[in-house]
Amino acid sequence: MKITLTVNGKKYQRDASENKNLLHFLREDLGLTGTKEGCGAGECGACTVIMNGKTVNSCLVLAVEADGAEIMTIEGEAKNGKLSKLQVAFKKNHAVQCGFCTPGMIMSTRALLEANPKPTVEQIKQAIEGNFCRCTGYQQIIEAVQDASGQLKKKEGLKRA
Amino acid sequence: MLDNTPKKDLKYVGKDVERIDVVEKLTGQALYTADLEFAGMLHGKVLRSPHAKARIKKIDVSKAKRLTGVHAVLTGKDLDYRVGLYLVDKYILARDTIRHFGEAVAAVAAETPTIAQQALDLIEIEYEVLTPFLDPKQVFDKKAPLVHPDLGEYSYVEAVFTPVPGTNIANHTKLRKGDVDKGFKDADFVFEREYTNPNVQHVPMETHIAVGKWDAGDRITIHTSAQSPFTVRNLFAHSFKIPHCNIRVITPYLGGGFGGKAGIHLEPLCCCLSKVAGGRPVRIQATREEEFSLLPCRSGLTYNIKTGVKKNGKIVAQKMTMYWDAGAYADYAVNVTRASGFSASGPYEIENAWVDAYTVYTNKPFGTAYRGFGHVEFSWGMERQMNHVAEKLGIDPLQFRKINALKPGSKTMTGEEVVENTGDVVKCMEAVAKSINYGKLTAAEQAREKKTGMKIGKSVVALQKAPAMPPFTGTVMILKLNEDGSVTGSHSLTDYGMGTYTSLAQIIAEVLRWPIERIRLPIENDTDRDPYDWQTVASKGLLLSGNAAILAARDLLDKCYDVAAQALRAQKCDLDHDAEKVFVKHHPKSHVTYQQMAVGYAYPNGNAICGPIIGVGRYIAQGLTNLNKETGQGNPALDWTFGAHGLIVEVNEKTGAYNVIKVASAYDVGCVINEGSVRGQAIGGMLQGLGTAMCEGYIYNDKGQLLNPSFADNKIPTSLDIPEEIDCIAIETPQIDGPFGARGVGEHSMIAVCGALGNAIEQAVGADLTHMPIRQEDVWKALQKKSPAKKTIAAKGTEKKAAASRKKK
Predict the structure, then answer these.
(1) Is the pLDDT confidence value at B792 over 50?
(2) Which CATH class is domain B7-30+473-620?
(3) Among A87, B211, B586, B670, whose Cα sits 20 to 30 Å from the Cα of B577?
(4) Is A31 inside any structural domain?
(5) Does position B796 have pLDDT exceeding 90, yes or no?
(6) Which residues of A touch B32 (CB under 8 A)?
(7) Above 90 in pLDDT, residue B2?
(8) Chain B residues with CB inside 8 Å of A36's CB?
């Protein structure tokens, strides 16, 4: 089936087979490999993208369901090679380790901040609950989102006895 | 290599430097193996056994082979190659015998994943289902079915391991220190208990993936998510008897590993499929489900501890028996057994110690390295035992730990003497005790108890770990000076998330006195291009590669000084350098810049000298030995990193539900290289430890079939599971041979969290737990057995109670 969709502000038209999910469509047909596959079952959130303003697990959305949709992926976050405020906050606060969950994590927190520019810690936790991270223990990600929303009082740090 | 530069003069070491690989990861531009495209690439898929133990009666692949789009179909019959790290016991595909649920039986490579799946569906197999061997504690049952009847024929590393043919023992590690019988005779009390934990999955967010290409002339190229490219190359070369120089292993960006990607896994199968497919690259990407049973997990452990102790709280004897549930193949489990065997007492001095650690083959998915390498598992038992004994003696558990802690002058279980610079576990315990207000409830906590109706408990536990590695573990760093005076490094430590590369860049920048922006360490590794490193495991990377980095930077400077001395007609001793140039100390204007010498220094008339500049640093662990196979005595430890956790929990006494309120962690890291990275390791490992403690673990049915191979049924911690408060503390007792005094801390954060949770829950409500994970129902069940007086035993009563288990003299 022929579908038309907008990804990161750019219009694409492609043939998509009915059983192909949006994740594989983005990665294989559009070459946007920033979005990752962690489980293929909608559990881990590595494949999170923003579709029509809402985060979705792209492994649970069929490409044909995205016909006419407006989609944002990790590739749309930095503009002209410049990191967004959110990305800079992740960078500064050590919110990235292996990086495999990072694209999905950025998408979830981007959607959160657009809906709620000053989220509480509890709201941040809720927003990323569906994004597994096995490396960081989440704390530094939460701090990064607080920082990006201008709410991090002082940078949390390591105590040196 | 301890540097004499005062800490305040250090520009990069000890600072909170941002990661050098963060921009590409934040933009989705970092390329992981799954992101790579290769011309003509085929997709491999694996048919897995639904049985734990079976004989393959018949296997028919003819229909699969005939399917259009299929380029290769393989079964065990086609592949007479065994692979193995320390004990070569595993066929690439099962031949005749199935040894675990999920084992690879056949594999196909096809033009699309869909065709590959269709081909798998066309393979016809007849199994004769056999009775599996599932309980490692039955290892001495003479009637137990053998997982490997041919064990006696397998090759293995004889200097280190002891398989027992005719049994299910893949390795028996022994340790004998002092006189344990005399120790028990001298003891006032003896306490013996058993502790258990199940198989656990690592769960790297990136599942295992490899792309293998087997070209004519036996030239092999492998792109893989492996932690240790040189180990993949070495094991591949041995299994297939192909020269090392014919095999190229490339590791792109890696999406986590935690030990599960050490060793060799999907690579041989990809390559064998490629060979059949005429050299087309074949990719196999494990599904999440396959990650649980086709790929390895963490071994389970049953740990029996018998402790002999004096009234004053000094442990005088300890007998420790470990039954490691290794699953169907030895992989790293034999070495986990060895490493945890010599470390099994935790960071406590045991004058008279006796360890028997058995790696037991069972018909389950096989165990491998997992962050902590056996220490998470035995620490659960040991830290529970420490509290148990302390309680029986009527001594505060923290005080009891301090009495027995390794201190300068103590001897470890292998007989190594602890010195001032080994590290300070008591300081770690005191730091976390202070952080959690150990031993009392604050006014706020009392108010909270009143409000919630839950009981608050606190605990402090201690931990230690040394890298588990061969005594001759070495590495190299090469620094190549670029035309503009920047350097590009080449080495083969991998960075699958830890941040070690950033720490290495800091170290190099510090030694060179250059801005860190001029140091590039490419994240991808390539065995054709980069020099050897044994493996990236064991928390040894920072120490060994950090030293190699220091030596490489010094060598680079030395080469620069050679050029400058010649060009400036000066002696090297009269030269100094800064970020831009080498100059004559007393005539600073007389100088040569790095740009001028990078690719060879040229005089004004065109004469040139010296050629392009590279610095090389080679480093190998110093003074380590194999352990005596009968006594376990020797010197196995590159460095000991000590640490402690303090944990506050609140528990509902009626339902067993609990919340972790706070975890404070302290590690004696020797020297902090990167504050953010140390904290990242501390928090990340702590939560992974809490996952193990609270909810993770394999569940089998009585046929040995795995029942929970998914995130739906095997939960890992999410953002909602983190403690309300987290505190991370670094103690810095310098390691003499560590880079700037540093030692590793990658695994340690995960160790002992389980014991901390179990002990705090017991302190809160008296639930006596001996199995982890600790689910709510486990707490509830333990509460049903609770003796009402348990929490408030008076000192006198304790002695009376304990006397019951006193050994008769």
Answers:
(1) no
(2) alpha beta
(3) B670
(4) yes
(5) no
(6) 36, 100
(7) no
(8) 32, 34, 205-206, 255
Nearest to A94 among B27, B431, B680 (CB): B680
Contacting residues of A for B19, CB less than 8 Å apart: 91, 94, 96
Does one domain contain both A100 and A52?
A: no
**Residue ranges in chain A whose pLDDT is less than 70:** none
Check if B7-30+473-620 and B373-409+425-469+638-803 are the same fold.
yes
Judged by CB atoms closer than 8 Å, whether chains meet at B205 and A41 is answered as no
pLDDT at B112: 97
The shortest C-alpha distance from A107 to chain B (Å) reads 11
Check if B113 contacts A (Cβ < 8 Å): no
Determine the Cα–Cα distance for residues A87 and B521; give it in Å rounded to an integer.
22
**What confidence tier does B199 reach under pLDDT thresholds 50, 70, 90?**
very high
* Domain B33-132+208-285 homologous superfamily, CATH: Aldehyde oxidase/xanthine dehydrogenase, a/b hammerhead (3.90.1170.50)
B22, B31, B719: residue with CB nearest A138: B719
Q: What's the pLDDT tens digit per position in B32-51?
A: 999 999 999 999 999 999 99
Among candidates A35, A40, A136 on the partner chain, residue whose Cβ is nearest the Cβ of B680: A136
A15 and A40 part of one domain: yes
Report yes or no: B637 and B466 within 8 Å, Cβ to Cβ. Answer: yes
Residue of chain B whose alpha carbon sits nearest to that of A142: B719
Residue numbers in A near B676 (CB within 8 A): 93-94, 140, 158
End-to-end Cα spacing for chain B: 51
Query: What angle (nearest 5°) sits at the alpha carbon of residue B14, between those of residues B9 and B16?
Result: 120
Q: What does the pLDDT look like over B116-159, one tens digit per residue?
A: 999 999 999 999 999 999 999 999 999 999 999 999 999 999 99
List the CATH number of the domain containing A108.
1.10.150.120
Q: Which of B330, B25, B3 is nearest to B155 (CA)?
A: B330
Amino acid at B256: G
CA closest to B501 among chain A residues: A97
As a whole number, the mean pLDDT across chain B is: 96
What is d(CA B660, CA B649) in angstroms, rounded to the nearest whole number?
4
My answer on whether A32 and A90 are in the same domain is no
The Cα–Cα gap between B736 and B740 comes to 8
Domain that holds residue A64: 2-75
* Residue B292 banded pLDDT, cuts 50, 70, 90: very high
Q: What percent of chain B has pLDDT over 90?
A: 96
Q: Pick from A21, A84, A86, A139 the residue to mutate for testing the B interface (most B CBs within 10 Å).
A: A139
Query: Residues A69-81: pLDDT tens digits?
Result: 999 999 999 999 9
Q: Which residues of A touch B26 (CB under 8 A)?
A: 77-78, 83, 87, 90-91, 96, 99, 102, 106
Q: Does a structural domain hold residue A13? A: yes
Which two structure tokens, joined as six digits, stand for B36?
């790579």
Chain A contact probe: residue of B719, B732, B733, B749 with most A CBs at under 10 A: B719
Tell me the C-alpha to C-alpha distance, in Å, between residue B288 and each of A41, B176, B222, B709.
9, 42, 22, 8
Ordered by start, the domain boundaries in chain B are 7-30+473-620, 33-132+208-285, 373-409+425-469+638-803
Q: Are residues A70 and A92 in the same domain?
A: no
The pLDDT, as a whole number, for residue B786 is 82
Contact A158 B682 (CB under 8 A): yes
Looking at the domain assignment, is residue A80 inside a domain? Answer: no
Considering the segment(s) B373-409+425-469+638-803 as one domain, its CATH architecture is: 2-Layer Sandwich (3.30)
Nearest to B318, CA basis, from B507, B176, B150: B176
